[in-house]
Amino acid sequence: MKLLRYGPKGQEKPGCLDHQGNLRDLSGVVADFGGDTVSLDSLAQLSALDPRTLPLVAQPVRIGAPMSHIPNFYCIGLNYAAHAAETGAEKPKEPLVFSKATSSLAGPEDTIIIPRGATRTDWEVELGIVIGKPALYVDEADALDYVAGYCAVNDVSERDFQKNRGGQWIKGKSAPGFGKIGPWLVTKDEVPDPQALRLQLSVNGENRQDSTTADMIFTVAQIVSYMSHFMELVPGDVIATGTPSGVGAGMSPQRFLQPGDIVALEVEGLGQQKADVIAAV
């Protein structure tokens, strides 16, 4: 299934795509998506529905983030070999885990707002994991059983706040709109191998990132298992699994987002994003 939320910002309704790619209304079945409503049990109930019996939604329509809220927004840093190399960092021996504020959540076409005082706002296309049931002390061999699905993520980052302002990376990762996910939550049955997905990102039509999840240092299964030994993952948690090479901070000379730029990205099978860049008022 490809699940999504559509409608004006703050008034989104849950929906899904049928087999012909038509948008269908799920608001008569589920109030919204987020937390337990994207658990494996909830998704199993939705999978029993025939999308053709659901109301058809006329398009075009705004597509919002596929979940109204997420309990936790985790990220993995330096998880692509080529990206670690372009930053001059050694490959991590264990997954480098940090968080984004959940208030950064945004939809695939919502604007990217450069924060006040920011000078080095960067892009990061990523594969996102959505957790489907509580995960604690999970073996790697069983880890994918805890995944509800996947989504495309743009882990927008302000490098100056991240690297030069002390403390944790979360300060450079959490401005409003910096957690762009969607357009869809794609259930894991439609992603047979999460380590074989192409990721692409362009700025103003110029290709900046083009890689595959095969370059990940730590796989989806390894990440879920590893994190579950430090915290309990819960339904609706999102884990952004790292970005490939081609970020602005890795270019020579470095290049960062400016007002008026257009950022487009795609993760194979998980849909596309396209967003204008503006300055904070």
UniProtKB/TrEMBL annotation:
The keyword Metal-binding is assigned to this record: yes
Keywords in alphabetical order: Hydrolase, Metal-binding
Residue ranges annotated for the Fumarylacetoacetase-like C-terminal domain, each copy included: 73-277
Cited Pfam families: FAA_hydrolase
An example Gene Ontology molecular-function term: hydrolase activity
InterPro entries, A to Z: FAH, Fumarylacetoacetase-like_C, Fumarylacetoacetase_C_sf
Domain of life: Bacteria
Family: Belongs to the FAH family.
Record protein name field: Fumarylacetoacetate hydrolase family protein
Originating species: Roseinatronobacter alkalisoli
